[in-house]
Design goal:
With 319 residues, the chain is an alpha/beta fold. The protein has 14 helices and 11 strands. The strands form 4 sheets. A 5-stranded parallel beta sheet has the order 2-5-8-1-9.
């Protein structure tokens, strides 16, 4: 399967609605290919929800949306068992989590108990209801949004849940020319019905499975481990990236390499992804926050200090 062509088709079709955000689109396509969840963190009105809806339309995946609010219950996400008097037995009423792309809109507005209902689904692609474990459809990806500015009636995502998102992205404001173009093309409505479906859930699953053939040399794997490990000993970091983060960066790098048309991962692939994959997993010290140090700044410092191994090609036989 040509993953590079598949990624290009998904990106080009999504860009018909989302102008000037090719980098963000490609990163989300990478997350979809590597079975990773996405957190879009930005101001209201910059296209977070529209981007997710557009990607669902062009990928041919089933999608459902949950508007997170303080009175949302876990059963509103997972579903529940209800008693059927006609049959004289309980039957499962599935919740919106039983889909391919789950849009968790303003996820930080739900209480922690409800937020935690997604933990098992995000990590194990299954849910447990009344002691019964039920598998989720494949592919299954959570795409969540949150507004980082407003704090009233919001509940900060705990580190355990942040660690389950493969990447965190920010859309940012469009450039003036892109915003003018948007006014004339999307001013009245967003024409999702006019988008072409360029793939299917089955093709996406096949693409995900094929990533295991992308080779990673011992030197590049060692570089990845050194980057992640350095976050755990940095003086400005209270909690560094976990082994789950290492696995996430490993999967993401394989997908990124495949999207570039290569059968092997290079150090450049690792460097391109350390910010979206690792920054949201770091907890900085109070001293760092007071000094204006950011997680991205810490990662830049670590990347600048570590020696970079040479890029390896087809001549090696990696993992």
């Amino acid at each position: 399967m040509d993953i590079a062509q598949l990624a290009d088709r998904l990106t080009a079709e999504t860009a018909k609605i989302i102008y000037g955000k090719e980098t963000q689109i490609r990163l989300i396509v990478m997350a979809l290919l590597s079975q990773g969840h996405v957190l879009l963190e930005d101001l209201p009105g910059v296209g977070k929800t529209t981007l997710i809806k557009t990607l669902a339309a062009v990928s041919g995946c089933r999608s459902k949306r949950i508007q997170f609010v303080p009175d949302l219950l876990p059963a509103d996400i997972l579903g529940m068992n209800i008693y059927d008097r006609n049959r004289g037995e309980f039957r499962h009423l599935p919740g919106p989590v039983f889909t391919n792309l789950l849009l968790a809109d303003e996820i930080n507005r739900a209480v922690p108990r409800t937020q935690s209902a997604l933990l098992e689904a995000m990590e194990e692609r299954q849910v447990t209801i009344d002691g019964e474990t039920l598998p989720l459809p494949t592919p299954f990806v959570v795409m969540a949004t949150q507004n980082p500015v407003e704090s009233e009636s919001t509940f900060r995502l705990p580190a355990a849940q942040m660690d389950r998102f493969l990447i965190r992205l920010s859309m940012g404001y469009p450039a003036p020319e892109e915003e003018r173009r948007m006014l004339f093309s999307l001013g009245d409505s967003i024409p999702l019905d006019g988008l072409e479906t360029v793939t299917s859930p089955e093709e996406l699953v096949a693409a995900q499975d094929s990533l295991s053939q992308i080779r990673v040399s011992p030197e590049v794997a060692g570089y990845l481990v050194s980057l992640v490990g350095a976050t755990r000993s940095h003086p400005m970091v209270r909690m560094g990236a976990s082994p789950r983060a290492s696995r996430a960066l490993f999967r993401a790098a394989r997908a990124w390499a495949a999207m570039a048309g290569r059968s092997f991962v290079t150090p450049d692939d690792i460097q391109a992804l350390i910010h979206p994959v690792l920054a949201h997993r770091l907890l900085l010290t109070n001293e760092a926050r007071l000094s204006g140090v950011t997680a991205d700044g810490v990662l830049d410092q670590i990347a600048a200090q570590l020696p970079v191994p040479p890029a390896a090609g087809d001549e090696f036989h990696g993992a």
